[in-house]
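Quarterly update from the structural biology core.
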Amino acid sequence: MQSIITFPARRSSLLTIAAAVIVTAVLPVRSFCQQPAAPAKAAAAPTKAADDDGGDLARKAEIMNSQRWRRAIFELGEWLSSQQIYSPQEVHNIKTDFNKRVAGMSSYELEYLLEDLDSKFKLLETPEAKDARQWVGQYLSVMSDSKRSEVLKDVPNVVTMSSAQLQQEIDKIEQKKADLQQRQAAFDSSRQQLVDRAQAARQATAAASNSAAASAQSGASFSPYRGGNQGGGKPPFSDAKGSGMSVGVGPWGAYMNMNVGSF
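Predicted structure, tokenized:
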């Protein structure tokens, strides 16, 4: 009887131990089976980045198709065509560089570029900027190619410079214009002084000549052919015997006869 009573207890203990072993073995398997779910979350990141890139490209395309962008590009092209600072090759390089920069920009960078272009166009339309551009064109038109290149070697690219830099360039042009105008005024004044001095010298010379001529006409002068008591009225060599010389006109023209013996 005792063995029959204790057997079930031993059997229960064995079942408990077996259940614990099974649970211990199953838990790592379940943990291992659940781990592949993590890469699914990581795979979602590229999808979000791709969506962001697509949204940025769509926004960039919207900006480039806007009326504001088209007007800015048109005004930039018109300014490059009418300006007299950059050579045709430099204009081509500016446009090529501009296209490369725009292609690599995000939509936010493109928006900033558009705002910067608008600011610079407002500066270029001011009376000071228009006057500076006209003056620069006239100033450069009289220069040789080498001198022109020397003057323009430090001129920055109007597309890549900021609005503040553009304003500084306009101010520099205005200052250079004022300096050259002062130098030109000083040169004109000196030249006018030389002209006035030369004119005064000519007038003084003319006055002296007129005075001398008037004095010569008003004073008495001796002439051997004058009559009266001045010993005039006699032919040359009147003390010689005979004329010694005769002049006449014959059928062959005028002739002169010399008689040396009569002297």
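Strands lie at 245-250, 253-258.
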